[in-house]
Structures are given as C-alpha cells and as structure tokens.
Predict the 3D structure of the following.
Amino acid sequence: MSFLRSELTYCTNVHPGQTVSEIIQNIENYVSRVRKSRALEEMAAGLWISARAAAELKDPEKQSLFIQALRGNGLWPTSINGFPYGGFHEDRVKESVYNPDWSTAERLDYTLDLARLAAALLKQAPEPFRKCAISTVPLGFAANWSEVKHAIALKHLLKARAVFEQISKESGLMITLCLEMEPGCVLETTDQVLALWQELTALNNQQQSQAMVDARTSSSLIGEDASIESIPQEQDGSPGLHHLGLCYDICHQAVMFEDVKESLEALHTNSIPIYKYQISSAIEARWPEAMDPGYVVRHEQLLNRLQGFCDNRYLHQTSIQQCQQGSVEYHLDLDKALERLRSSARLFWKDQHFAAGMRCRVHYHVPIHLKSLNDGENPEMPKDSETPGPDILRGSQQSANTVDSSGLFTTRDAIESALDFLKARPSTPVLEVETYTWTVLPESIRSKYSDVVGSIGKELDFLEEALESRGLLEPEMPPPSPANRDPGSRG
C-alpha cells in the first residue's frame, strides 16, 4: 500500500467561502495554485461545502459550472468536510460549529446532499480519485446531548449509511460517511467510538431482522417463496455498517492524550474503518522543573504566550496532564484552562506539582511541519545540549530550555505515530492536511506565514517526505497523452 503525491490534499476550510461562487474563487485563487506549485497535472481536493452551497449546487446550471471549475483546474474532490454546516469564518463560531447535530433532520439532509453531490462531481474521475470521504460531527456537543437525541441520531446515521451505500453502488464510486472524534463532543475518545459501534451494529441487526420478518410475512400472504438471505457481512467485517467509518483527526486525539498507536490498533481490531485521516497538529506546552531557579518567571511567560492563542472565533479545548501517564484535567476552552493555571500556580509550585513532565495540549491546529512554536521557527536541538532518553519528537521529558526557551511545542509526534501505523496496517484512506488557522495565528507566527499557498505547500512537502521515508510514497504516473486523454478533462 502506498500513496501518490496527487492523492495528498489539504482541507479548504482555511479559505472563507460559503457560496458556490466563493468556493470557485478559492479553487482558482488558492487550490489550483497549490497544485501548480507541486507540479501536478491533477490533484485531490479537500472541499468544505456549506449547507448553503450544497443547496445551490442542486441547480443543474450551477453544478455544471462547479464541475467545470474543478475539471478546468485539474482537481478531484476526494474529501468533503461536512462538519461545519455554515458560518465557519464568522466572528464567533465556538460550540455552534456542532449545530445542527445528528438528532436533527437538517444534519441528515445536508449530509445526504453532500453524498449525492460527490457522486456527480466524481462521475468521470480516474483512479485513484474514485472515492470521497465525507466527514461529519461526532453526533453532537456533549453538554447538549440527551438519551432522546442519542436514539434519534443512531437512526439517522443508519439511514445515511444505507443511502451512502446505495449511491456508491449506483455510481461505481466509494463514498463514505466519516464521524470525526473531537474533544467536548459525544464522541471524543476511542472507547466511546467502540461503544457507539456496538450500539449501531445491534440496532442495525435489529432493523434488518425486522425487515426480514416483514418480507416473510408479505411473501407468505401472496404465496411467494419466503426464503430470505441472512444479514450480509460487509468487507470491513461490520455487519451492515460498510460506508460508515471515521475521520481520524490526529490533533483531536493528541489533545485527549490518547496514545495514537493504541487508539488506531483498537479501532483496527474492532473492524472500525478509517476512511480519512486529517493530518493535523496541536499545541503542546511543556513546563520546566519546579525547582528551576527561574521557574516562576518562565511559568508566567509560558502562560502569557498561551494567552496569545485565545480568540473569540473557535473553541480551543485544552487538557492538562500533571505528569507523564498521569490523570488529565479537561477544559472546554483555553481561556478557562489559563484561569485555572494562574489561580492555582502558587499552590502547584509550593507542592511541586509543576514538575518535569507536566504538559498542556490545546486544540489549536498549528503547522504540521513544526516541532516547536518558537515564533514560527523550527529550531533543531543543539548537539551540545543533547541528553539521554527518547528523542524530543517521541515525547521526551527533558527541560524545555534544552530546545526551546518558550516552552511551546507541537504534537507532531502523534502524526509520526499515525504514519507508522499506516505502514504496519496497509489501507488506502484519504490523507488530508487540516490547518485552518493560518489567518488567526498570533502575529509572531502569522507574520512568518503570510503566503498561505506557500505555507500549505510546506505542510504537504513535509507529509510527502514523511511518507517517502516509510516507503509509502510511489512515483507519480506520467499524465495521459493527448490522444488518450478524456475529451472532457483539462486540456
């Protein structure tokens, strides 16, 4: 199993645009430029299509124009972000990004619209672009959830799964629905996904059993043969749940302090497919040792630097781990976590709770190629400061001043672990870089990444190199000759 460079993509939710015309402008002004900068004839695209745009694209004329824009720019949408329903770039998004949730007809209808649209957009797609992974909210926001909502959501998911399967069969494409775990939501951990799959499987089996009973009754009444086949086992081993799986956002699971390798192994063991990986990285703050003479000053400096990542637009769920393998304290947003750290700083310092190994992880997507956030630079460890123990990318607990005096790093090691898993467990998911914060990063970092196209290119370069080092990147096939090229394709 390996990937072509043209299969690797990024999520265009970084570019504001809720209407069809705005998305087309983004395709021409950004996505096409990324493709050209990578010297690719064709490239996979990761589109965010809002509910408003999805409704517009039901119009045949607008859909035709949209397809022309994609084809004319050599793009095939193998990924659609169906998580934000709309308003992703409004001044304040926060928890509203999870609305409407899966207990509503609006979420179901929107998701089905995206599946039908994917089939239309990829109708003439060549291999390896004949697939589309559509990601969605992890049921809903945990604080607003209830048993009633849960029961409705399960039925909606199974209905959507059946429609996705039917659309895939009719189109000859592989169109999949991908739940995306996220901190603060109904599904935020791997264990919660495992439990959900048991519920879905049981309900699906119950529904199919009832359908067989109804079929037998109907056949008996009209005198037909009542033999009914047993419930089919799907290719992924999940009875009747094929086309329903996960979008695995690496940043999200890192914030939950999940061991990515263990998480992925558990999902694999339980036959829960991952159709899309969002290659993303979170902020990780590392504290100096409590007995460090400059501890108090550096502690305050670290909190002040973290303060710069607070904003009014997005939620930045934050987890604090007192020591390696220790318990994790969760906060819905970064500002709440900082209040906790500031109000408890003296007590923690007195009791030496801020010992080597304390870490704070923030749901804030940062450039995936960076090891640290030293004002946006990527400093390498000085040779004369190397210390025994694991490499810094593998979770080393050495004092922060050996590499980056700011104490702010990233969870790039989690990306490395996920790619290691892909090497050990071959599959062909969509790989999509998702850093949507380029325009809201603190000025000290944003000023170094003013060229968004170039910055996205650096991330894709990093992903390519990481795959190649694992033997997961294969040479790109030459483009077809003009005589053999599909007459409707880009000239």
In short: The chain has a mean pLDDT of 85. DSSP finds 14 helices and 13 strands in the chain. The first strand starts at residue 9 and ends at 10. The radius of gyration is 24 Å.
